[in-house]
Amino acid sequence: MAETTPKQIMEVDIPQRLGAEPELQREMNAVVVFDITGPSGGKWTLDTTRTADWVKPGADGAAPKTTLTCSDKDFVAVCTQKLNATMAVAMGKLKFKPMDTNLALKLAKLIG
Hints:
By secondary structure, the protein is α+β, with helices and mostly antiparallel strands. Helix content is about 40%, strand content about 25%.
């Protein structure tokens, strides 16, 4: 089985989850930039104000409500439920700028 990567999570897993659970997309209704550091990292923009095509590679110019910064290893650990998202924030492994607690909790439902 291939190793899970941030690219797979962002471009395959998150769109599948949003498609299967449209209430998550409606609840979030925001633009979030994911800045994943490390060798398998990258930047992606999640735009849940749209009705489809939620994830785009890069920071596509839309003004994000928040930017999530995390290492590739910690991001994969949170998304595969090996690391609790709330604990990751408390330990400084998941960082939001600016911090929007309400949006962070909604993101935790989506990625964790």
